[in-house]
Specification:
By secondary structure, the protein is an alpha+beta fold. It has helices spanning 2-7, 44-56, 95-108; strands at 27-32, 37-42, 70-72, 80-81, 86-92, 109-112.
Length: 129
C-alpha cells in the first residue's frame, strides 16, 4: 500500500503519520440517501469512474493523480439507511466537481425497500467417487 501511495505522489510515511502527510481536498460533502431502505446494489464501475472524474485516477498513464480527492465512509451493501442519512463522503477540488460526482454516485447506488434475495455462489455440488 505504501509503495502504491508513493508511486501516486503521496508521502512515504503515509501509515506512520496516520495520513498526516496527505493533502486534503478543498471540499468534502456527504452524499445523502434520497430515501430510506437498504443499499441493494452498487455500480462499482460507475463509482470508480466518478473518482477518476474527480482527478483521483488516470485515464492515460501520463495523467496526474490528485491524491486529495476521492471517497470515504462508503456504506457497505446491505446497510439500512434512512432518508437523508449519508451514504458516503465525496472529497473534491471544487463544489462543482463534488456536485457532479454526487449526481453520478447517486445513480450508481441502488436503495431498495428490502434487501435482495441472496443467491448462493455455489452452482452445483459434485460428489467424488
Amino acid at each position: 500500500f505504501v509503495r502504491m501511495v508513493c508511486s501516486l505522489g503521496g508521502p512515504r510515511d503515509v501509515l506512520a503519520a496516520r495520513f498526516a502527510g496527505l493533502t486534503r481536498a478543498r471540499v468534502v460533502v456527504e452524499l445523502a440517501a434520497p430515501r430510506g431502505g437498504v443499499i441493494a446494489a452498487m455500480d462499482t464501475r460507475a463509482i470508480g469512474l466518478a473518482v477518476v472524474d474527480l482527478g483521483g485516477g488516470r485515464r492515460r498513464a501520463s495523467d496526474e493523480v490528485d491524491v486529495s480527492v476521492g471517497l470515504s465512509d462508503v456504506r457497505p451493501l446491505g446497510s439500512l439507511v434512512a432518508a437523508g442519512e449519508p451514504l458516503l463522503k465525496v472529497h473534491a477540488a471544487s463544489r462543482d466537481a463534488a456536485a457532479a460526482a454526487g449526481e453520478r454516485l447517486g445513480r450508481a447506488i441502488t436503495i431498495a425497500a428490502r434487501a435482495p434475495r441472496r443467491v448462493s455462489p455455489l452452482i452445483e455440488r459434485v460428489a467424488g467417487g
